[in-house]
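Need tokens for this chain, all 109 residues.
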Amino acid sequence: MTHPQWQVNSEHQCALSGPLDRDTVPALWTELQAFKPTQNEMELSLKAVERIDSAGMVMLIHLLENAKKQNCHIMLSFVPTELRTLFQLSNVEQVVAGHLKNTTGVNCG
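Here are the structure tokens for all 109 residues:
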């Protein structure tokens, strides 16, 4: 099983890769809770996310909220089609609307 990875590429950009699902999110969330952004704005690339389910979506929303509490605005880029569909089905589009940088479809493989 592939494990998700959190990578900080620079002080303004980070990335998630691998699967973000109910099996992998608990361990990843423990790691992400220790993340302390030092900038007012960051980009989080989801380009290498293989698949995502509702647990992954909720984790991302919590990550956005936690960063906001630390005065950091996270923009999601390369948002997978599956995640945009989950946002719609869960009626959370308004919650994430200001956090979507690149909304052109990227399909999870």
